[in-house]
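Title: [Solved] Ig-like domain-containing protein 3D structure

Original question kept below for reference.
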Amino acid sequence: FNSTVMRLREYNMCHSIYSPPDVHVFAKRSISDKSKLKLTCLATGFYPKDIFLTIRKDLTSLPEDEVESTGIRPNHDESVQLRKSVEINEDEKAEYDCFVSHRTLKEPVIVKWGMQTKIIN
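Solution (posted by the thread starter after getting help):
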C-alpha cells in the first residue's frame, strides 16, 4: 500500500498541471491604530510555487522589510497561496496596487486598491 501511495505521489508531482493565481486585494482597519489600514494582497490556487508578488506604492515596489508575508503556504488541492500585507495611514493619497507575475500568466496581474475596496472592520 505504501509503495502505491508513493508512486501516486511521485506521478502527481511529475505531472502536476500548471495553475495560474487568483489575485485578491482587501483592506482591514488596523487593530493597534484605528487611523491605519492594513492592505493585503492574496494570490491563491497557483502551481508551481515560484511567484513574484509585490505591493507597490505609486508603481514603486515597497521594500520587503516594510511588508508582512505569510510565505508560500499549501492549499488543500496541492496548489499554493501567498499573502502579503502593509499598514498605511487611512488618509494617504498614494495609489497602491498588487503586482503578481507567474509562469502561467502571459502578462502580470495588477490589482489596485481603490474607492471600491471594502474596508473590513
